[in-house]
TrEMBL record:
It comes from Calidifontibacter indicus. Residues 20-245 form the ABC transporter domain. Belongs to the ABC transporter superfamily. Residues 318-338 have a biased composition (Low complexity). Residues 314-355 are annotated as: Disordered. It comes from the Bacteria. This is ABC-2 type transport system ATP-binding protein.
Amino acid sequence: MSAAPATASSPVGGSDRGRIVVQKLTKSFGSFRAVDNLSFEVPPGRVTGFLGPNGAGKTTTLRMILGLIRPTSGGSTIGGVPYVQLSDPLRVVGAALEATNFHPGRTGRDHLRVMATAAGLPASRADELLELVGIPAAAKKPAGGYSMGMRQRLGLAGALLGDPDVLVLDEPANGLDPEGIRWLRGFLRHLAGNGKTILVSSHLLAEVEQTVDDVIILANGRLIRQGTIEELRGHPKVRVVVPDPARLAQALNGAGIATEPGDAPGTVFALTENAASVGDIAFRAGLPVHELRRQQADLEALFFELTSQGGARNRNLGAPAAGAGQPGAAPTQAPTKAPTEHVDPTSAPTEGEAL
Ligand SMILES: Nc1ncnc2c1ncn2[C@@H]1O[C@H](COP(=O)(O)OP(=O)(O)OP(=O)(O)O)[C@@H](O)[C@H]1O
């Protein structure tokens, strides 16, 4: 689907509401292309994982979507409108790009109150939000003493200030303990269930695989894969070890279960999740079965494969070690990135080249 023409007067409604559309987005820092001709859409009502190894270009893309840096070319819209043209951005999109830069001497409550006041919202919203993100007891403590997990929750509270349609969260699970990750998962799923658009970045697919509906995978600034997490997992399979795989395949096919050649001699894959029915069919056909196991897609391995194959080898790792590649080849070193700031949606962009 192509993006609707984006103008300041575009209505934020209909099917555009809460939809992020990125078109041919490119960002170069000098001669280094951090984001390369990226196009994707993020629909409302779903949690979308924005994934890629370190340095893939996730944060740079999010910063462009949020109007914090200017694209070299291409563009993006939120609800049909570029971020910088949103008349009331706080109610459209909330973002937390980093959870570390709060004023250390200011309490969580004061931090949120300052933001609320600047946005013309009642100061009482601060306590509501602290309650919502599960840190009401931290309200009176200076943020400098917060754990990483508490800072993440405070960042999330800030992003939720204007009850926006869209939430953009950069690595929100960083620093959360297992209980915190479970809480975050439930919280994001709840928000998506209420129709919000949730875009969550992570460099670990395994970290978000239970949370996301859709994935957008980047490597070296380029789109590698986009689809549902189910599509990525692929068809459920049962791996069977049998003395005669061809006969078992025949029996399974005869019973309406498709098969694929196995990954080793004496194996066959039945394309079903019903391991019991595979065993029953083998039994009825008089075929001994030595092993029968549901095959779980190894998403971590798949993610690694997708983001490291061919030209997708992580440029930030430099050239392969001498002996493995061309001897003496200079490493393709990416420039060191400038420190990122916590996004206060009420403030103007602060970067030198910002709009
Ligand atoms: N302001 C900048 N100046 C120069 N290079 C930059 C700048 N910002 C980012 N980069 C480079 O662009 C590339 C992409 O960085 P980005 O932070 O977008 O990646 P990322 O996918 O978010 O990585 P991570 O998971 O480590 O946060 C990196 O090589 C980074 O060094």
